[in-house]
Amino acid sequence: MPEIEDVLSDLAAEMAARPDRGEVATYIPQLGKVDPRKFGIAVATVDGRIITAGDAEEPFSIQSVSKVFTLTLALGKVGDALWKRVGREPSGNSFNSIVQLEHERGIPRNPFINAGAIVVSDVLLAGHQPREAIGEILRFVQFLTDDDSVYIDQGVAASERETGFRNFALANYMRSFGNLHHPAELTLGVYFHHCAIAMSCRQLALAGRFLACGGRNPATGHSVISSERARRINALMLTCGHYDGSGDFAFHVGIPGKSGVGGGILGIIPGVASVAVWSPGLNANGNSHLGSVAMEKLARAMNWSIFSP
Ligand SMILES: NC(=O)CC[C@H](N)C(=O)O
């Protein structure tokens, strides 16, 4: 087996030189300003090592990768009652699609598409002011990372609110079915802010480590969630974490993963490591183009597909 250090530095060099970089998301104007030449990668192993290459220390907008953390918190808050309001099936549609909500009575297919994550935000808002719910999410991510410097990029949150017409449509539509318990303005305040969390690849890999360790954070020894819940979140990441590109990611990479339109991907190799990669250019499904390529090459080099014998 090759050394992770060598694989990562080769990957970073190769990815920095590739001309095909995908398209940076511009529907959130602030994200359109990010340099498409960036590439970073970090691996946090269950035995406590952290290996990085490229722009792995630079914070980027984690966007929908944050939905892994809000789902974890919401399950902690309401347990399996969450599944009355959100499904667990891949949608086969784009991340911000509204089409299924009409026939499926305002119940989103899964917690990782926008509609599902908005319901999760609504769950976290119950009994709180938006400011408190946002603070709880940020503190949870800081706790997982063991790093208080993780922050919310207020410019990105504001930019997203200004152009969040589709998310307002999704939220209001779900409210008409009774599946949003707060005004869209308030719930989306929580949603836009958690999407605007900024982290480096190093921090994101550390934050995801509990999912590779049966729910336990190996750095602190704290049990974050039960091993059964960690297993189930990983299952949802595999089946739904890349929207209508989830099948393709499982086919090519073979590990649970969650992407975001900021170009980040968090990948989990249960029992082995958590991986974060960042390259801002996206493919047609809104997933990081070179991030997906790099994950595939890494999984192949290290034999990390969960489907490998
Ligand atoms: N796929 C994503 O990362 C989408 C998240 C983004 N904040 C949105 O609501 O559109």
From TrEMBL:
<comment type="similarity">
    <text>Belongs to the glutaminase family.</text>
</comment>
<dbReference type="GO" id="GO:0006537">
    <property type="term" value="P:glutamate biosynthetic process"/>
</dbReference>
<feature type="binding site">
    <location>
        <position position="191"/>
    </location>
    <ligand>
        <name>substrate</name>
    </ligand>
</feature>
<dbReference type="InterPro" id="IPR015868">
    <property type="entry name" value="Glutaminase"/>
</dbReference>
<keyword id="KW-0378">Hydrolase</keyword>
<comment type="subunit">
    <text>Homotetramer.</text>
</comment>
<feature type="binding site">
    <location>
        <position position="114"/>
    </location>
    <ligand>
        <name>substrate</name>
    </ligand>
</feature>
<dbReference type="GO" id="GO:0006543">
    <property type="term" value="P:L-glutamine catabolic process"/>
</dbReference>
<feature type="binding site">
    <location>
        <position position="243"/>
    </location>
    <ligand>
        <name>substrate</name>
    </ligand>
</feature>
<feature type="binding site">
    <location>
        <position position="160"/>
    </location>
    <ligand>
        <name>substrate</name>
    </ligand>
</feature>
<feature type="binding site">
    <location>
        <position position="64"/>
    </location>
    <ligand>
        <name>substrate</name>
    </ligand>
</feature>
<dbReference type="InterPro" id="IPR012338">
    <property type="entry name" value="Beta-lactam/transpept-like"/>
</dbReference>
<dbReference type="Pfam" id="PF04960">
    <property type="entry name" value="Glutaminase"/>
</dbReference>
<protein>
    <recommendedName>
        <fullName>Glutaminase</fullName>
        <ecNumber>3.5.1.2</ecNumber>
    </recommendedName>
</protein>
<keyword id="KW-0007">Acetylation</keyword>
<feature type="binding site">
    <location>
        <position position="167"/>
    </location>
    <ligand>
        <name>substrate</name>
    </ligand>
</feature>
<feature type="binding site">
    <location>
        <position position="261"/>
    </location>
    <ligand>
        <name>substrate</name>
    </ligand>
</feature>
<dbReference type="GO" id="GO:0004359">
    <property type="term" value="F:glutaminase activity"/>
</dbReference>
